[in-house]
Amino acid sequence: MEPAESRTTNHQTEPQVFPPALLELIEFFHQRLAGEPFGSSLRVTAGVLVPGSSLPAGAVPVDLAAGHQAWVCLSALTSDSWAAGALQALARGWGEVYSASGREVLLMEELAVDWESLQALYDLSADLQSALKPEEMLKRILGRAISNDPSLRAVLLVQHNGVLSARAMQNLDVCENLNPAGGLVGRCVSEQRSLVLQGQHQIAAAGTNSEPTSREPWNGATSLALVPITTAARGLFGLLAVWRYDQALGFDSYFVRLLEALGQQAALIVESDRLNRTLLESERLRQEIFIGSLIQQLLLVGAPPKESARLEVATLALPSQTVDGDFVDLFAHPDGTLDVLIGDVMGKGIPAALLGAATKTHILRALAEKALEMPSGETPSPEDIINCASAAIGPDLVTLERFVTLCYARIDPAARRVTLVDCGHPSALQYRARTGEVLPLRGDGLPLGVLLSERYRQIEAELEPGDLLLLYSDGVTEAHNAQRELYGEERLTATLRMCSGLGAAGLLDRIRTRVLAFCGDEKLGDDFTCLALKIRADGAEPASEITILSSYTDLEQMRTWAAATLGSEAPSELCDEIRLALTEAVVNIIRHGYREEPGHPIRIRAGHHARSLVFYVEDWAGEWDMASIPQPSFEGDLEGGFGVFIVRSIFEDVVLTRSEDGSNVLQLSKSRKL
Amino acid sequence: MEFTTETVSGVTIVTLLGETLDASNAKALKTDLVPVLAPGAKLVFDMKALRFVDSSGLGALLSCLRQVHSSGGDLKLCEMAKTVRALFELVRMHRIFEIYSSREEALRSYGAEV
Questions:
Q1: Is B11 contained in some domain?
Q2: A639 vs A275: CA distance, rounded Å
Q3: Of A553, A584, A642, the CB nearest to B24
Q4: How far apart are the first and last CA of chain B?
Q5: Which of A86, A223, A240, A405 pairs as cysteine with A227 (C-beta 3.0–4.6 A)?
Q6: 3-state secondary structure A198-212
Q7: With an 8 Å Cβ cutoff, are A645 and B91 in contact?
């Protein structure tokens, strides 16, 4: 027998709380999260959090009994911010529910002597599992408290926003809100213990000195039991009061213990209900966002990019937490021109989204109407289209007190020209491959719906192969970080310059990553809509620039580009030298500038000069100094350091400058031998 | 980069099979060649497939040379393309490496019967 006993002792000294508590924990989380939207794929994992150890990635800490902690995480859902929110909410809820149920177990054990009370508690525990409404369950709890004795009155007061208000009553019609600091309530709260009082005089004299702000419902009672309910997470949760008027029959301590247990049950129900509401609320919000983004995808920005041999087109739409009226559209004309439209309806919500869809329709109709008036084969001008659409939709917008900003651009790859009407929209940005500059294309039109007499005029700009056009909504430039700093046109311009070589889709991908990284944990306040267009180089002329990412495996691609740029007539020795020198320059940037971190852009651009070959190698690695690279040794005792030497040997002129937007530009020139 | 090895009269010939030896594969090649660089090894690297070598690739070859030298062995290069030879000359490594135009010449320099 002895070994068995000692085993038992061991079990008691080892905290056995963990395994069952963890199972309960997993069940708790799983029950509330299973089903939509997670389906059967949901896995909940939990473990004991050893003091001093760190949380697993994506996990949240939760409190267990006796100061122990555990962690919980959900499978493969860390990227879903809703799931992360739900996990946090449940972790808080668990703390409250668990602490309440822990107390309930203790009280039940104490009450085991009283069969009837125990029976009452078990019945209620069963109710907790049932689908009864919380108000119904609370009423039952109070029914138990008074054992359905019509001479007893009971009220459950719950603290909310600094006052105690009745959440359930028995044999009582009204109960005013009570101040938790005054009267008998105040005493019970400040002393944190149950009060049992008998006789009108004693009850009247027992309150705190400060007067209760309202009449306490038990005024004039002959016996009163007042039980505070506290939970670990919230402190004072509320009070449970039972009293009678007619007889001097008092309440015994068992009765008070029963009330305390019932109070914990009540706390459990209220907290659980609050938690479920929070979850439902976030689910509802998620649904709304889902519907919003569906509208956005289908009606507003869902137009498939129209690619052509001459044009590369990409669109990006990230819906915000609320629905916005951003819209995008593309119309390809038979003459090879492409019209692009980006717009933003003032205001939010589904009405704004529908107005965005209506504006799009009006513009399409205006385009069709104007086209009918034109000699066949000709396309109406952007300003005619917008003036026609403005006449049609303007009065409606004025009536609705809404306005719409938009930018309508026609790209003519053959004529190398963009024609654009700007209706109060953020300026389109043009990256010019020839110079490496970014220019805003700014018109002076008012938004649609502001002034009915407004006449819209178009502006024109030249477009060359390699040029990029970026149209965007203010959700991009007005995305902000935790310090309320805006992403701004300047950062967007820098990103466009930096990533212009990545093509239209690559550029938008970088914009998305960079803006989201800038915002950090801040949510996008507005929809985020971008459209990028790149004028492809004609087959005959090679692209004058290339952007590669900071990975050595991209070197070959850069060398292929360099050879194509130099053309087949270039002497092969020259071609070899240029390929080598550019490789060395880029390897130095990757190694010393970006410290071999992958994914950063490096742009190599070929200049057009009659008498010399010029290459610009640009990086965004911050200020780093080529001079810091050690000198090479020609004795064979060092394996590195030849890169800079090679670059300087091949190019006569090597100049490193820092551009205005913080990039490093290495200008490499070599005279052409005629 | 892939390579093959064969032994002719006590000389190990390493034939480098890739066209490019640059920063993208120099480190890996250095690691892969470790078993070949036995103490006292007589080595010839046949470079006829290589079309492009940059300074990182050169660094890997230099590292092999130093390792072999320190253990009493030797490393010679042969069959080097003109473009690769240009790099060696640019950084004067043609004075550090023994470079032969053919595999046979390289073998003969070790006194091997060809």
A1: yes
A2: 64
A3: A553
A4: 28
A5: A240
A6: ECHHHHHHCCCCCCC
A7: yes
Of A556, A587, A634, the CB nearest to B91: A634
Distance CA A320, CA A336 (A): 35
Q: Which of A575, A576, A638 to mutate to test the interface with B (most CBs of B within 10 A)?
A: A576
| Contact yes or no for B61/B77 (Cβ under 8 A) | yes
Pairwise CB contact (< 8 Å): A580 & B59: no
Of 3.90.480.10, 3.30.360.10, 3.30.460.80, 3.30.565.10, the CATH number of A545-671 is 3.30.565.10
> pTM for the complete prediction?
0.47
Give the residue from B27, B37, B31, B28 showing the smallest Cα distance to B5.
Answer: B37
Looking at per-residue pLDDT, the higher value among A243 and A274 belongs to: A243
Residue A33 belongs to what H/E stretch? helix A18-33
CA distance to A354, A378, A403, A408, A409, per residue, from A386 (Å): 19, 17, 14, 8, 11
In a domain, B17, yes or no: yes
Is B54 at the interface with chain A, CB within 8 A?
yes
- Please indicate whether, in this complex, the C-beta atoms of B20 and A587 are within 8 angstroms of each other: no
**Structural domains in chain B (count):** 1
* CA nearest to A85, candidates A32, A41, A49: A32
* In contact, A617 and A604? CB cutoff 8 Å: yes
Q: Hey, where are the domains in chain A?
A: 301-535, 545-671
Please answer yes or no on whether B52 and A579 come within 8 Å at the CB atom.
yes
For domain A301-535, the CATH superfamily is PPM-type phosphatase domain (3.60.40.10)
Asked, for residue B93, whether it belongs to a domain, the answer is: yes
Average pLDDT of span A43-56: 76
**Spatial separation of the C-alpha atoms in residues A376 and B63, rounded to whole Å:** 73
Q: State pLDDT tens for residues B72-106.
A: 999 999 999 999 999 999 888 888 999 999 999 99
DSSP string, A51-71: TTPPPPTT-EEEE-GGG-EEE
Given a contact cutoff of 8 angstroms between Cβ atoms, the answer to whether A200 and A222 are in contact is: yes
Q: Answer yes or no: do A555 and B59 touch at CB < 8 A.
A: no
ipTM entry: 0.90
d(C-alpha B24, C-alpha A488), whole Å: 37
Q: Is there a contact between B72 and B13 (Cβ–Cβ < 8 Å)? A: no
CA of A587 to nearest chain B CA: how many angstroms apart?
7
CA angle A410, A412, A418 (to 5 degrees): 50
Distance CA A658, CA A618 (A): 9
Is position B114 within any domain? no
- How far is Cα A241 from Cα A226, in angstroms, rounded to an integer? 5
Q: Which of B25, B56, B91 lies nearest to residue A587, judging by beta carbons?
A: B56
Q: Is A279 buried (19+), middle (13-18) or exposed (0-12) by CB count in 10 A?
A: middle
**Cα distance between residue A155 and residue A262, in whole Å:** 12
Q: What is the CATH number of the domain that holds B98?
A: 3.30.750.24
